[in-house]
Structures are given as C-alpha cells and as structure tokens.
Amino acid sequence: MISLVTDEVIIGEDTLAILSNSKHLLIAHLNPDGALSSHTLTRFNASRIQSIQRLSDGNFVVAGQFRNGALRVGDQLVTSELSPAYVLANINGTSGATEWVQSPTPNPSFSNPLGDPLLKVLPGDQLVLVFSPGGYQIRCYGCPEELRSIQVYRIDGQTGSTIWEKEIGRVGCAHIRDITELPNGDLYLVGSFSGELESANGEKLTGLSTNNCSLITGCLFKMTDNGDVYDVKVSKDGFTAHRIIHLANQQYLLGGSILSESVNEATPEELSTGYVLKLYDQTDKLLYQENLTPRSRWYNYLDVQKIDEQHIACSGTFDGQLLGEEVYYLPNLYAQQSFVAKLTLSDISIPPGNPDSASVDIFPNPTSDLINIDLGDQFFGDRLIQIFNIQGQQVFQQDGIGERSKFNISIDQLAPGIYFLQLGEDGPRTKIIKLGQR
Fold this sequence. Notes:
The protein is an all-beta fold. Among the domains are: 1-104, no CATH class; 354-434, Immunoglobulin-like (Sandwich). The chain contains no helices and 38 strands. Strands 12, 13, 16, 17, 18, 19, 20 and 21 form an eight-stranded antiparallel sheet that branches. The radius of gyration is 25 Å and the shape is globular. It starts with a strand and ends with a strand.
C-alpha cells in the first residue's frame, strides 16, 4: 500500500508516525489478513501524487506535482522553474530510499494543473510519460483558441535517463488515457480530444464539435518504437477509449464509453454514456462490439485489465442493465452502483468467418428462446442459417427460409452460453447470448 500522508499516520491500532504537517510517502506491506507487516516513510512534500507504478525489481516510480519551485524527495532535492511542476521518483520498495528523481519539463504552453500526466510501465522497465493539455480522466476543460502540445517521454525506469522526447500532436484539449506496446515495439496510445487535432505525421482531424469542448472525441495514436507517429484514428460515433489491450492474435481490445445521445449543444451534465468493449483486428477493422451498460455517469471511466491470455477484468459504474441483464434500476442518474466483471476473451472474440454484425438486426439479444431476424435489404444467397459455439462448432442449422426479410427461430434446445449466428455460407456472424429459463 502506498499513500501520501501527513499529520498522524495510523493503520489499524498502530500509530506509525506524527509528522507535524510535513508530507511523506508511506509504503506499507500488509499480510494476507490485512495486518501491517512492515512500513517505511520517505519525505515527499508534493502537492499531489498522480500515478504510482511498480517495476520488476519491486521498486516504485511515483509521478506527482509540486509547487514553489522545489521538492524534497528523501535526501534528494529537485527544482523547476515551473509552478506547478512535475516530478518522477524511483523509490526503493523495501527501504524507501530514493534511487533517482527528476522533473520532466513539459511544453510551457500547457503547464496546466488540471492536466494529469499518464505514466505507464512497459516491458523491460521502460516508462512512457504523456502530458496532455487540459484533460482529466476523460474530461476536457475549456476550448482554447490556440492548439497546444501533446508530449511523450520514454524513460529508462532503472536509471531515470530520458531515451526520447516527442511532440505527437497539437490540440485544443486532450487527454491520453492508456498505452500498450505491440510485439514489434510500436506504441498505441488511446484517449480523447476536443475541437481540432494536428498530428505530428501531418494529419489534420476534427472532433465531434469544434465549438463545444463538452463533446469529446476518441482518438488512437500509432507510434514507432522511437516515438514517430505514423497513423491516427478518430471515433465519429461518440466512442472514447479508456483502456487498450493488445491480444496475442494481433487483435486489440478497447474499453471505454459511448455517447447515448449526440447533441451538439449538450452540456456535460446532459450527456449520458454507456460502457462498451470493442474488438479490432490488425487492420483496424471492427470485429465485434459488446455493450456492457446502457448508461453511466459521463465523467467516470471503464477500467479494463488483462488477467491472462484468456481473461479480462472490467470495473465501472452502472444503473439499469449490465451485460443485457436487468440488474438494478435507479431513476436518479447520479445514484449508481459499482461493478466488477470477469470476462473470457473467447466471449468477445469472433471465430473464423466473415464478421460483420452491422448488416442485420437480431433481437432480443440476449434471449432465452426465440430470436427475431430482420434482414432489411440484405441478401445472403441460399438463406441458410447456422449457429456456432465459441469453439467454432456448428450446433444449429436451418435452411429454406425463402425470400422473407423478417422471421424468427427458436434456440430453446441450446444450452445457456455464447454463440455466433451466421447467415448464408459466407455471410456475417453475430454474437448471440442464450440465457437460462427464468
């Protein structure tokens, strides 16, 4: 457990220190039953701590802010001409000693106290530090007339030396929320921006609105291992990614929020969002979208963590429904419940075939019995219907449905679980969820 503490420091019934208003970094080791095993206190008079990351050797890298030009970290002093300024410190996880400390200096044009830097540890104890102009979590503050810099550092976590420093774009308002490293060393950065975006690779992009910064737009930066931007993607459907996970099969998973209404003049309080998982292949083609919740408080974010190659964990807040199930309903948007969910990646992956869930309307989904299918103006040749389980095995087949554009089928005979419905021999596959009988 790590925390910035002051005054009396108490864990359980133990008073660890009385600090006389000086700030210290507490590193406490707890037993499995929650009892205190050992602790250290290191002087760290920062105004706030914004991120803590653990290295492979058990040490911690702490990112924070300090004011008035100087900061004492243990027995080391760091200074900066900026106020507020940012600090990175490597703290020994056992002794609390300061291994190294530095103050990265972002472009002065966005030294904004509301802008939380993103710190991420990559394999090999490489650190990536991103400064975003004016963003906090997934919010954007203000609509400045001048574009400001998004700046990225790559730092050696063991020595504190800067490997490279790059400006990846200029924007009115933005916040980079997560980073992942691909096997070839490329970096994918996801987050949000408002207004206009000028990428370092020369692309000029616009968000959902150029005059209302309450309407944030999702973005994905693709960079080489030396920090050069080679592609930028933006989401025009109101989706903003909060987390990105790279999968072993070259697919990547985005977890985030999507606007349930896109009103150009809406205020932040009037916008509501739902949590969404989106699965993409290596060519950025959307393979599947899982709607976790129909609505959430707009300024919260969805956390997604990879447990192993087969499982992910998600957490956030919701009211109404979770994964299609009516769980709890609260009429007040601001009174919501927290959730933690563990999902199997095969539940949100597409087996071999031609995935395209946007071409037909299948409802209700989830269902315990009947599925209604509306083909619209689509045509799939032989009108064959097949259902596959998550292993890709066919478990249902029906043909001879003629030229009807609307019909239904019964899947009462299938066991509860995840399936994929395919129209025609090579038609689109859509994920369906079979529920148990209530």
